[in-house]
Every structure is written in structure tokens, then in C-alpha cells.
Amino acid sequence: MKKYLKSFTVLAMVLSLSEVTAAQTRSSGGPLSPMQQSFNVHYYDINLRVAMNQQAISGHVDLYIIPDADTLTTIELDLGEEYRISYVETGGRLTGFRRAGDKLFVNLTDPPETGESFRIRVVYSGKPPVAVRPPWDGGFNWSKAPDGSHWVGVSCQGEGAKLWFPNMDHPSKRPDSASVSVTVPKPYVVASNGLLESVNDHGTGFHTYKWKTRYPIHTYNINISIAPYETYEKPMTLGDGSTMPVVFYVLPDDLDKAEGLVDMAIEMLTRLGKYYGQYPFSSEKFGIVQTDYLGMEHQTINAYGNRFNYTRINGEEFDWLLLHEMGHEWWGNKITVTDWADFWIHEGITTYTDALYLWDRFGPEAYHAKFDDYRRRISNSQPVVPGSDMTSAEVYNLDIYYKGAYFMHSLRYLLGDDVFFSALRAFATDESRTYSNYTSTSDIRSFFEQHTGTDLKAFFELYLYTTDLPQIKIEQDGAEQYQISIPNISFEIPMEVVTGTAVQRVVLGPVPVQVTSPGRPAVDPQNWYLKNGN
Ligand SMILES: [Zn+2]
To answer: 205, 224, 243 — which closes off a domain?
Structure first.
């Protein structure tokens, strides 16, 4: 999601995250109600008119629902209480509904048959919540571009898509596809997910953009941005020889910068593809849309609000925000969790990817410098995975980014590069864990254990389910003799031990290991692990 922040200035501006979380009155996820467990929405067809002067939306959403049982008499949906519902229709007839806060309960007079798709239409209108500090505090951005045009954005990862359309606001309840049709005055352009199917000119000064994605998608990733965008597009040749458009919806004033950002995107997609397999949504596009908020990983249409503020390493430039949101196309969008308790799989592995890119492009020094930076940002105030059936607000903090990334960094050292990268790629390309399937922390552990033949239970427990850190103990035991141990863990971890000029990989645990060294040995001086002591 959201972007962890790069500079301390920006960080200070948005912090504290606890303050941000407290400010959120809404979140998504948590325990799924029995009623919501009993059906799935497999397709959303969203049809809206966006009145930018009035800062309002109106229209209808068709939800295509498949019941898991033939006793379904009520459909429980999520929709912000600020919206007025004109009517709800199913099977060509109006049907009753009731509201309770952000919940919408639709009555079904004839229970639909198990496994048979049926449609509910919700016709509604209202003023969406205005985003205060997007993307952390989501809603609509009713911004103005430098030329005075409207510039509209939406972000809702923390609060959920109920901020703008009726849906099942839960990470475990993704549809297999979605359409978004939005009517705006000409010459405004609507950028959204998937492929542009049509632009229908009504001859009244208004036109309707119709987009459709045929991939499974989180409802918070269904998205629109509106501005008098120009498009800049280049084809990218993929590993399998096919081509895919890389397209940037850019404000006219910044069109001259578009080629540079698109070229960066192609370079980054190529590097990430080496580690995780080909870009996951290649039958549609890799899309970027310029937004007035920092960023969000909206699938196939990543929000980009970094204002071309490039990072420079060794005289070369890249955009850290573009890289981060792109990483989510694998970790978050292709590979995704059912429970926000496992949010770190989205944020931590994407943040790991940010550093891995540096290794791949600039070498180990840039990678380790990144982890030095991450390490200083870790608060370790609660476990990375703090429970189960959790809401986004309960889980979201900077440690899901930085400690999550550090966990992958440590796992890499523990397994060694060949084994680690082979397992990571195998995981990211495993059909049973991607697209319409889901993963979890325990699923990653069992996959890595099977793939590598290594028992990782205690290692996962320590770093993801507790806030404990290994306590390194070094005791001198005679001339040039030292005993090294980690007394507060009950398992063993390989660590680098530097004795004089020699670097050894030593398996350390509660039982002291004797090493010979002309001076006090250094344990894990490159900080592959989070630890205390030494
Ligand atoms: Zn993120």
C-alpha cells in the first residue's frame, strides 16, 4: 500500500502512524461475519457519474453473487453510511434492504440456488468522504491540477472500498473480475484497472470511460483517477516474447517527463521479473496514473504521486515510489492474504523488493545501506503478525514494512542465496498460491520448509510472532579463545563470525561455540539479523 516514507522530513509530516491509525474511524477486514461467509461476489460492474464541481458521485453497481448455501435470505454488504440508496433491485424486482452504519443488508425473497450466479443492483448517490491524508487516511481527493483543472483521486486501502461503492470489504473476498464505467465531462479522462473497452461520447458534453479487468482483484484496488490526462505508452517485450503496454496517464504539464518514468518502469519490471517471474497482469497493462497523493498499488494502474522526485545512486536515477508500488503487483496483488494479520506479506516483501532492486542494479553496498536504514526505523512495539482475523487498522504500522523486509533479509542469509532465491521464485510462480488463490504466513513457512528441507518454525516464530531478538553473548575463555552463544533462543541460526581477518559462517545457539580469534570476534557485523548484544 501506502508507501513507507523515504525522507525523515516526509516521515515527520505524516507521523505518527499511531495517530493516523487512531484517526481512522473505519477499517477493513477482521472477523468475517457468518452471513458474509455464506456467499461470494465474483464480479462487480460499477457505473458512476462523478460530479466534480459538486464533489459527489451517483449511479449503480451490479454485484454478481454466488451463494455457498441455498438458504441465503440476506446479503450483507459494506457501503459508507453517507450514501443515499435510491433502490435495490434483483431479478427485475425491487427488493427490501436495511442499513446499519456502514452495513447494507439486502433481503432475498426467493433464496437463490447454491453455486448459481445472480445479480443485485444497488442504485445510490452521495458525497464520498474527503481524503485528509491520503493514502493513509483515504477517501476522494478533489484536487486541482496546476492548470486549474479538476484532478480527482481515490484511495481506500485502510478503510476499504465501502468508501465509494457497495462491496464485500474483506481481503478474503476478492472478485474474479470487475468493470468500472465512469461518466465525466469532456475532455476529462478516467484512468482505471485493466483494459479500456470503450469511450462512449453522449453528444451532451459528457462521455463514459468503460474499463474492465479480468484478473482477481482486491476491492480496495479497484480504482479511478480523473484529470485531463495525456497518455504516454511504450510496448514492453516480455520474457515469453509477448508484448504488453506500459502506459502512463500524466498531467499535460508533465508530459515531457513521461518517457523517462515509463523507461524506468520497463527497466524495473525486467529486474523484478528475474526474481519473481514475469509481470503478473501482462494480458492487460502495466499502468501508472499521476495522482495528488503519494501512491498506492492499484492493480494495473499504480498511483504515482512522487512528483518525479528521483533518487540518485552512483550518478543514476530511479523512482523509489514507482518501484515500491510495482513490487506490490507481485506481493499484494498477484500474491495476497485473506487476513490483514498477514499484511507484512504485502508490505514487508515489497519493501524487501525495494532493497533487492538496489542489490541487483547497484550492488551489495547499496542493498546493505538500505537495510541499515530499515533497521533504524523498526520499533518492535508489537509482533509483525499480531494475531488472527485482524483489521487493517489493528495491524498497520511501520514494522510490517521494515521488520517484514528484515525478516526476508535474514531468511536469505539463513538459507543462502541459491536456495533462498529459488524458493522465492518458486513461491511467487506457484499456481496454487497466486491470482484467485491466497497465502498466509504459515503457508509461506510450509512452502519454504518443503522447498528447502529446513525447519523454519522457530525462526518464523521468533521474528514474526514475538518482539524478542537474539541476544548475542561473547565471553573470553583464555588467550585468543572465545565462547559465543545465543542464550535466549532454543534453536540454532547460522551467523557470520569475523575473527581477525577471517570470516566464517558459524551455527550459533544456546550452547556456546568456541572460536579462536586474535581479538574479540564480531558476530554478524553486516547485520543480516536483528539482534541484541555483540
Ligand atoms: Zn506498500
So the answer is: 224
